[in-house]
Amino acid sequence: IMPLFLAEIPIYAGGGRETPKPAITDEGEAEEIDYLRIAAMMIRDGDYDRAKAALSSVDLASETVDPAQYNTVSGWVSFPNAASKASANYFESAIVHGQSDRIMYAYLGQIYFILKEYAKSISAINSLTDFEEYPELLGIKSQAEWHLGERYDAFMTLEYAIALFPGNESFLRQRIYYL
User: Fold this and answer.
1) Can you give the pTM of this predicted structure?
2) Of the candidates 64, 15, 22, which has an alpha carbon nearest to the alpha carbon of residue 41?
3) Of residues 2, 1, 75, 4, the one with CA closest to residue 36
4) How far apart are CA 83 and CA 122, in angstroms?
5) Do residues 158 and 174 make contact, with C-beta atoms less than 8 angstroms apart?
6) Cβ count within 10 A of residue 13
C-alpha cells in the first residue's frame, strides 16, 4: 500500500538518480538540499536504500526539519522490508509530533499484527473511524482479537464488517473459519 502523503510529492526536476547538487542562487549562495523530500520521493519510487541514505543526510538540528514528517518517512524506510519495531516507533513518534494522517494508524495496526502485538494492533485500528478505504483492517482486527482469545469480539468485528461491506466475501470466509 502506497503511503498517501507520498503521492503528492513532485518528482525532483534534476533528472537522473544521482544525489542532486546544491543549486546556486542569483546571489551566489548554495541552496539547502531538502534530503527529507528526496527520501520521500525515493520511497515513492521504491528505492528504499537510497531513501535511507538521503535520510542520513537530514540535519535534525535544523529548524526547518519537521519531526512529524521525518519520523513518518523514517518509518516508511524501515517498513517495506519487514515490519519492525523501529518502523512502529517512528510512526508513533510521528503521531506524537503532530502527524495527523489517519493512514498512520492503518499501518501501525498492520505492523503490530505482524509483530504479534495484538492488543496494540487492535488499539491502532480502533483509532480509525472510517474503514471505507481500508476494509481489510477489520479482518486484521478480528484476527488479532481471535489470537487474544477474545472470540466474541472477533465475531462481532466480523459481523460489523459483513454489514459494512456486504459484497466482501473474505469476511464471510473468515467467520466460517472461526466456526
Assistant:
1) 0.73
2) 15
3) 75
4) 16
5) yes
6) 6
22-52 pLDDT per residue, tens: 555 556 565 678 898 999 899 888 888 899 8
The x, y and z cell numbers of residue 28, run together, are 551566489
SS3 (DSSP) at 58:
coil
Distance of alpha carbon 33 from its chain centroid, rounded? Answer: 24
Pairwise CA distance, residues 35 & 22, whole Å: 11
Q: What are the pLDDT digits (tens) for 61-119?
A: 888 888 998 998 988 888 766 668 888 999 999 999 999 888 899 989 999 999 999 99
Of 31, 22, 30, 54, give the one whose Cα is nearest residue 41.
54
DSSP letter for 17, please. S
Please say whether the beta carbons of 70 and 100 come within 8 A.
Answer: no
For residue 152, is it left (φ>0), alpha (ψ between -120 and 50) or beta? alpha
Phi first, then psi: give them for residue 109, nearest 5 degrees: -60, -45
